[in-house]
Amino acid sequence: ITVDELNFNNFWILIQGSEAAVLKLFGMSLQSEPMEAHDCRIHVAMDFSRLQLEKLRGDASCRQLQLAGNSFSDFTAEFNGTPEWLKMENISMHYLNGPIEGEAMLGFSQGLSYVFDLNFHDVALDQNMFDGNVIGVVSGTLQANGFADRLDNFKIVMNAPSGAKIKSGLLESLVPYLPAKSDVRKRLENAIATSGYVYYDTGHAVFTKSEANMLSADVHLTAKELNVILNPVIDINIEGGLQSVFKLLEFFSNPKGQEAP
């Protein structure tokens, strides 16, 4: 941890308990696995009783956060808590150029526990994500709760407006079910042969924790270009607790180093 500037109003306040002790950190950076934080500012007021922390409240901001391989920018949040828990409200940050807002709760009394409730908007998926299989802009929600080594509940709802596209190879299994000489089948076969894309008009996906180490993804796509409605169900293996939440995000966004077609 490095800090450019640290201000503390009065040490004797801790002993007297006459008013909240105020701590200010400027230009703070943190580097630790699996988290990094850069150019942070923290302002916290703490209530003590006989040198024991009872309550705290404040706000924080960071220019850049790295969590298990995921990059977040322009993070801000308000927080309040006790030695047993910390609640963060009015969370705001950017991920894949899209804004995220929401709140979170961390518990410390029985190991680390967590609750996340976040909304994301206009998150841009490009050719370097999902192996380039899906390109477009998505919005949705994320809810998760569990412990450091256990993910109890997890749900992501993603919606994509018209104009997004999917790699034609993912639709290859549909070819036998299309009329042999139809224009739709010819267009799809040509797109598959050229490793092209198919534009879909609406997209909706729900990822939920189905078993101990499994997520189930229920996907609904409509593509007027092919006159089809797709409802595949995908299973994703996950292991671990809080770390698995960020690994799943990394699965969504990990750059593959591919060149655009």
Structural features, described:
The chain has helices at 12-16, 183-193, 242-253, and strands at 5-8, 21-32, 35-49, 52-67, 70-81, 85-95, 98-107, 113-125, 134-147, 150-160, 164-167, 197-200, 202-211, 214-223, 228-230, 233-237. The longest helix is centred in the last third of the chain and has 12 residues, at 242-253. The chain contains 3 helices and 16 strands. With 261 residues, the protein is mainly beta.
List the helices and strands and how they pair.
Blueprint: E1 5-8, H1 12-16, E2 21-32, E3 35-49, E4 52-67, E5 70-81, E6 85-95, E7 98-107, E8 113-125, E9 134-147, E10 150-160, E11 164-167, H2 183-193, E12 197-200, E13 202-211, E14 214-223, E15 228-230, E16 233-237, H3 242-253
Antiparallel strand pairs: 1-2, 2-3, 3-4, 4-5, 5-6, 6-7, 7-8, 8-9, 9-10, 9-11, 10-13, 11-12, 13-14, 14-15, 14-16
Tell me the Rg in angstroms.
23 Å
* Overall spatial form: elongated
Largest sheet: 16 strands, antiparallel
Helix content: 10-25%
The end-to-end distance, rounded to whole angstroms, is 43 Å
Strand content: over 45%
Number of strands: 16
Provide a count of the helices. 3
Query: What is the N-to-C order of secondary-structure elements (H for helix, E for strand)?
Result: EHEEEEEEEEEEHEEEEEH
Helical/strand content category: mainly beta
Task: Give the low-pLDDT segments.
Answer: 255-261
Mean pLDDT: 79
